[in-house]
């Protein structure tokens, strides 16, 4: 039974997307909700099955590797799957009222988003390097149209830039897969790693695949496309792109380095990749401090927060740091997913009510949008890493690991990033809570928010706080199928 | 030199040309073409890999190339539509940051 749940988590959203595409959104809104809830139930069931019975395996169509495609769910996959499902359910509930009244253009969101959800699940479950390439391309081909949905000059340029860079990235990834297959004769994620060892061709393949994924995940210095693409998309699409799609690329980087190329992970290599992450943390946070619009602030904060995930690679080789750093980084990926999706949806509420998201124009908005601003504030608290948020738990573990191994530099990066995150968060919140200046145009009473839009961001953000309560079961689930060094 | 080695070298040269084109060309159509050339160089490498052993053809890379071609066609179609829409919206054939 549990084996069937793995393909279901891919096929349920995919079939929903097809049905919605064929019969049209106006008649299919119930189908969308049903599909989203079923996907959520399947994802939670997979997490439960992995927690109880260890890693789950399913061979698609009964074809065993090396010919067939293996679906494989360990603790990491199950957690990412569950996080995606919770964020996805929130985005689906939110997008219904947000897109209503936008006519035909709004309807295009649904098939793209549902296929994207299916693809994300496929990415987290595939144990086949070529199948992962297909999933990466599908992510690009659904994310770029979502970024272009507004159809105006900045969003079309952003989508074009994103598409070209992402296609270059996936070709680099495929070139790496080709080399690895040529050397080992297998496409299986773990088998290829065991057969390959630390040969020169493996190093080239690892470099190509990592660079390609960096382009997809907007890791410094390949980050230029992210801010315009994510800030010009409609709010539910921004939430999905920032919280889930970019992270899927980094998930794969960690998966490859820990499962396929552990033999190549020398200290200088860890420092190189971790160093790029550290630069991304500082650079993204400083840029977020300088942006004039709320969605741009949140988009740059994504670049910074994704950088934290790379700090795992210099720490994982040190036995004193490995376990804490691994736990911290995965918790950070989950907490960031919830907080970032909530923050983008809250920004969407401001655009919905005020018609813009310029920070200067947010003065005096708090009494009208109190629930939204509560969600935004709590999301920022988690991004800063203050207790009692999930972000705090993640950064605490990361810091503990870094300091236990005497790696003060990486600990300093974590602290500095949190400090600058506090600066850009308080800049936004201070403006929103400020008095309307005297003689300034009277604030128009904003449009009323539908209840789903008012509460969805808060519910998502509260999940990041719920992680503190569920910390122990989450970490136990994560240990299922984790590689030797980090258990 | 074996056939496989020869075609692998050709694939390497092609991908170098493609990446050079993607970076230096500003016209969107040329960049989309460069991505296609890059894709074809990878497919060529895969086909060459399938013939490493002169007596035996490995079918798996062929299946990968077929899938890859389908994806490349859809990605190119979308990129062309996006480029046309961008052109009709802005009158530009290159991205705004490439302005002189």
Structural commentary:
The complex is a heterodimer of chains A (487) and B (100). With 487 residues, chain A is an all-alpha fold. Chain A has a domain at 279-487. Helix content of chain A is 76%, strand content 2%. Chain A has a two-stranded antiparallel sheet. In chain A, α7 runs antiparallel to α9 (200-217) and α12 (267-289) runs parallel beside α18 (408-433). The two termini of chain A are 28 Å apart. With 100 residues, chain B is mainly α. Chain B has one domain (3-94): Helix Hairpins. Chain B has three helices and no strands. Chain B has helices at residues 3-24, 28-50, 59-90. In chain B, α1 (3-24) packs antiparallel against α2 (28-50). The longest helix of chain B is centred in the last third of the chain and has 32 residues, at 59-90. Chain B is elongated and about 55 Å long. The interface between A and B is medium-sized, with 31 and 33 residues.
Chain-averaged pLDDT of chain A: 90
Largest sheet of chain B: none
Binned strand content of chain B: under 5%
Low-confidence stretches of chain B: none
Oligomer classification: heterodimer
Note the beta-strand portion of chain A: under 5%
Largest interface, counted by CB within 8 Å of the partner chain's CB: A-B, 31 and 33 residues
Large-scale geometry of chain B:
elongated
Sheet with most strands: strand arrangement of chain A? 1-2
Rg calc of chain A: 21 Å
What gap, in angstroms, lies between the N and C termini of chain A? 28 Å
**How many structurally independent domains of chain B?**
1
Q: CATH class of chain B, please?
A: Mainly Alpha
CATH topology category name of chain B: Helix Hairpins
- The shape of chain A is globular
What class, by secondary structure content of chain A? Answer: mainly alpha
């Amino acid at each position: 039974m549990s084996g069937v749940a793995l393909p279901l988590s891919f096929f349920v959203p995919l079939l929903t997307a097809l049905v919605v595409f064929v019969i049209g959104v106006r008649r299919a809104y119930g189908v969308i909700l049903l599909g989203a809830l079923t996907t959520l139930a399947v994802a939670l069931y997979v997490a439960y099955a992995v927690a109880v019975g260890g890693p789950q395996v399913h061979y698609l169509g009964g074809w065993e590797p090396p010919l067939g495609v293996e679906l494989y769910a360990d603790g990491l996959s199950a957690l990412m799957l569950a996080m995606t499902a919770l964020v996805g359910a929130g985005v689906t509930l939110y997008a219904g009222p947000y897109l209503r009244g936008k006519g035909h253009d709004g309807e295009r969101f649904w098939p793209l988003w549902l296929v994207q959800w299916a693809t994300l699940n496929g990415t987290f479950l595939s144990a086949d390097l070529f199948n992962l390439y297909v999933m990466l391309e599908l992510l690009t081909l659904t994310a770029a149209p979502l970024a272009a949905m507004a159809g105006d000059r900045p969003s079309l340029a952003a989508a074009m830039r994103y598409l070209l860079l992402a296609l270059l990235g996936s070709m680099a990834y495929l070139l790496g897969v080709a080399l690895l297959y040529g050397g080992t004769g297998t496409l299986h994620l773990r088998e290829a790693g065991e057969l390959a060892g630390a040969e020169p061709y493996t190093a080239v393949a690892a470099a190509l695949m990592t660079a390609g994924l960096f382009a997809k995940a907007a890791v410094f210095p390949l980050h230029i496309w992210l801010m315009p693409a994510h800030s010009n998309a409609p709010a539910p699409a921004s939430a999905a792109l920032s919280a889930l799609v970019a992270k899927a690329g980094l998930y794969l980087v960690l998966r490859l380095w820990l499962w396929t190329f552990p033999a190549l992970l020398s200290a200088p290599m860890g420092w190189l990749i971790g160093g790029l992450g550290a630069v991304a943390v500082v650079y993204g946070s400083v840029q977020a401090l300088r942006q004039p619009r709320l969605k741009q602030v949140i988009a740059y904060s994504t670049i910074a927060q994704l950088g934290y995930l790379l700090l795992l690679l210099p720490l994982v080789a040190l036995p004193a740091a490995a376990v804490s750093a691994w736990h911290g980084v995965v918790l950070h990926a989950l907490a960031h997913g919830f907080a970032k999706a909530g923050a983008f949806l809250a920004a969407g509420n401001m655009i919905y009510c005020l018609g813009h998201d310029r920070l200067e124009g947010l003065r005096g908005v708090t009494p009208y949008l109190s629930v939204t601003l509560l969600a935004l504030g709590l999301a920022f608290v988690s991004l800063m890493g203050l207790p009692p948020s999930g972000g705090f738990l993640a950064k605490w573990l990361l810091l503990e690991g870094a300091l236990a191994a005497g790696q003060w530099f990486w600990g300093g990066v974590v602290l500095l990033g949190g400090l600058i995150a506090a600066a850009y968060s308080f800049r936004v919140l201070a403006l929103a809570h400020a008095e309307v200046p005297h003689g300034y145009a009277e604030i128009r009473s904003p449009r009323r928010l539908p209840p789903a839009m008012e509460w969805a961001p808060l519910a998502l953000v509260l999940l990041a706080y719920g992680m503190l309560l569920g910390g122990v079961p989450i970490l136990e689930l994560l240990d299922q199928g984790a590689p030797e060094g980090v258990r | 030199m074996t056939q496989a080695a020869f075609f692998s070298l050709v694939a390497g040269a092609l991908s170098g040309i493609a990446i050079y084109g993607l970076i230096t060309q500003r016209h969107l159509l040329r960049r989309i073409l460069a991505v296609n050339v890059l894709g074809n160089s990878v497919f060529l490498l895969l086909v060459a890999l399938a013939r490493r052993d002169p007596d035996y053809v490995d079918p798996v890379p062929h299946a990968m190339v077929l899938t890859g071609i389908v994806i490349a066609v859809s990605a190119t179609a979308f990129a062309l539509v996006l480029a046309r829409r961008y052109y009709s919206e802005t009158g530009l054939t290159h991205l705004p940051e490439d302005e002189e």
